[in-house]
Amino acid sequence: MNPAFSVIFLTTLIGAGQGLFIATVVGAPYLHQSGSGSFPVVASLVVFTLLVAGLIASFFHLGRPERAWRAATKWRTSWLSREVIVLPMAMLVSLVYAWIHWQDMGSQGSTQWIGWIGVAIMVLLFLCTSMIYACIKFLQEWASAVTVINFTLLGITSGLLLASGLAFLLGEPVAIEFLLVGMIVTATSMMTKLFAFYRNSRIKAHSNIQTAIGIKHRHITQRSMGMTGGSFNTRAFFHHCSEKLMANMRGIVLTLVFIVPLFLLAISVQLSQPILVWIAFIVQFLGLLAERWLFFAQANHPQNLYYQTVG
Amino acid sequence: MSKQLALVIDLNVCVGCHACVTSCKEWNTSGSAGSMPDERPYDSDPTGTFFNRVQTYEVGQYPNCETVHFPKSCLHCEDPPCVPVCPTGASYKREEDGIVLVDYDKCIGCEYCSWACPYGAREIDSQQKVMKKCTLCVDRIYDEKLPEMERKPACVLACPTSARLFGDIHDPDSTVSQAIREEGGYQLMPEWGTSPANHYLPRRKTRITIHEDELVREDNPLHKEDVYPTGPVKQTTLDDVTSW
Questions:
Q1: What is the pLDDT at residue A187?
Q2: ∠ CA A212-A213-A217, rounded to 5°
Q3: Whole-angstrom Cα distance, residue A186 to residue A285?
Q4: ipTM above 0.85, yes or no
Q5: In whole angstroms, what is the distance from residue A162 CA to residue A142 CA?
């Protein structure tokens, strides 16, 4: 597949937002009693900003953005439609959570249940976003529960690092817990990502040129794809990058998303340097952009079997 | 059972002339699906939206090889994976005749349906920014202003070798059903369970077996009576005696 940058930004931005919201709600009981109490408000507003930024990015993917509202109609069958419904719900709940904590500032209110509803919505949104890809059964690199697990874990990882950075900024001691949990989730998602790489390297394609044109012969060569200048089929489904870059991308992803952030976080624990947490978050976010790019690029669409030679 | 209109394409007959491609483009760019843009048609990098393409494959290795021309358009699957993924309902399958269509007024151009089609049958219109695909000439096959002969998809009418058959594959007596049944019609990528309505007829070898006794007449009366023609007899001809 040819990676669509609008979708790359959509999934990484809202992933970080969802992760941050989950971290905020789960971490709320551990906030320092004497703290300013502004952390949940600030964090939820950052969540809202990230979700809005993701939504804006997604509009660049549409040919007819003015009709986007129609996308909420087919939620019975389409995961994309479900995402379109759940994303505004997630925005709303982040605003409501911020508002409640603004009203309730300083006291540990009975507002936590709103937070948990929000967590459920965020998890649902992870499911909707990832199932958009995982439900296409002939895109074998995507059609797996691993896709759902990775979208969810990577989003939570990114959100935890952001939560830690924000908590350090606001002087909340819970920042160190966010940081430690963030390291654990980063390490866990590294395992699942490695498993995804392993799984994808062993995929045996169900479709081949024989089933594509229905001729049972060992030697079939395409001589013409029916056009000389390319078409939507040659632009949208091929990444047009070298095998060398593709091979290197795995290393880049593993380094930026997992190894460098883990290293920086470990140092920041040792030296208590909050700035390193922010650097880790930014490096990891750049890595996540690369990870999502690779997620698209490594998916082999069966239609590519029909477009192997210009002729 | 409801109707399922479809094309049956005979790979044994297709000569790869692209007449179906051009007539499809001509009809549909001026019809309800139009226009179908061509970008930079006379430059070095031309591109455009087509509903139908003819590809060419070489099967086997030289010199034991055959050229197979392979027309490819939307297969109007009986279980189309592109339809349920559409978030707006723009992509739909008609109950009455099984044609898979796109409502160009509802499509938001998200391209998700094209990801969900294993055959690459859909192309985005780069100017209208909506997804387009073969309509089986739905604006033509029911048009009563046309003579009944012409109420067929443009590609079917254009084919000079009649490699394209059109009809209802749910009707067991239709030409297409008979062709599928008797000529070994098959579907593309059956492994995904999409059950494409369009079928392809395979290459067929036309051979007859002739035995020795069919070439030499066993009951030849000359043979029986043992009287054979003796060949030219040496005698004077008119040429020998005249002098012109």
A1: 97
A2: 100
A3: 12
A4: yes
A5: 27
Peptide bond preceding B35 in cis form (omega within 30 of 0): yes
B19-23, B188-192, B233-237: least confident range: B233-237
**pTM for this model (two decimals):** 0.89
Across the interface, of A224, A228, A236, the residue whose CB is closest to B111 is A236
Token pair recorded at residue A279: 């650097």
The pLDDT tens digits for A150-186 are 999 999 999 999 999 999 999 888 899 999 999 999 9
> Using the beta-carbon criterion (under 8 Å), do A232 and B49 form an inter-chain contact?
yes
Give the pLDDT confidence of A117-151 residue by residue, as tens digits: 999 999 999 999 999 999 999 999 999 999 999 99
Closest-CA distance of chain A to residue B31, Å? 21
Q: What is the pLDDT of residue B1?
A: 66
Q: From the list B50, B106, B110, which residue is nearest A61 (CB)?
A: B110
Query: Does the beta-carbon distance from B87 to A136 stay under 8 Å?
Result: no
Closest Cα partner for B25 from B172, B123, B163?
A: B123
Query: CA–CA separation, A104 vs A28, rounded Å?
Result: 13
Give yes or no for a contact between A292 and A3, defined as CB atoms under 8 angstroms apart. yes
Residue A82: phi and psi, rounded to 5, are -65, -40
Tell me the CA distances in angstroms from B200 to A11, A178, B52, B93, B181, one per residue in order.
Answer: 40, 60, 15, 21, 11
Pick from A64, A137, A214: CB nearest B192: A137
> Going by C-beta distance under 8 Å and a sequence separation of 6 or more, which residues neighbour residue B23?
B154, B155, B157, B158
Alpha-carbon span B241 to B244, nearest angstrom = 10
Token pair of B165 as six digits: 């058959």
Q: Which tokens sit at A226?
A: 């029916």
Residues B2, B96 contacting (CB under 8 angstroms): yes
Structure tokens that stand for A67 in this block: 């009709």
